[in-house]
From TrEMBL:
PANTHER family: IMPORTIN BETA (PTHR10527). SUPFAM superfamilies: ARM repeat (SSF48371). One of its GO terms (biological process) is protein import into nucleus. InterPro entries: ARM-like, ARM-type_fold, Importin_beta. This is Importin N-terminal domain-containing protein. The keyword rRNA-binding does not apply. Keywords: Cytoplasm, Protein transport, Repeat, Transport. The keyword Ligase does not apply. It is found in: Cytoplasm.
Amino acid sequence: MAYDNAVSALGKICQFHRDGIDAAQVIPAWLGCLPIKDDKIEAKVVHDQLCSMVERSDAQVLGPHSQYLPKIVSIFAEVLCNGKELATDETTTRMISVLKRFQQTLPPDFLASTFSTLQPQQQLMLQSILST
């Protein structure tokens, strides 16, 4: 639980006090800690926070040349596969909207490559979501 709270605090620093940190170092480290799973309350807060940053097309969260998008898709897939445990209904709906936007705007090869790195269960779940 302490780990999840620390990851949450780091996310809040990334979101609200970015000018005081080396975002190029801290944001990838934060993404590497996600998704969090033990503290269910904090997980919902952090995953909502990530979704908000992605919805805003936050350049530092997406990374140079969108290099963090595969990690973000992986986080979203894991959160969505866990149902209501790791995100609120509102956040899951927003994550699905973001994934559908990615499907419409990103090259198919990029998405196929990203999906190939996911667990089979996650791939099936995303294919089902994106086909509706």
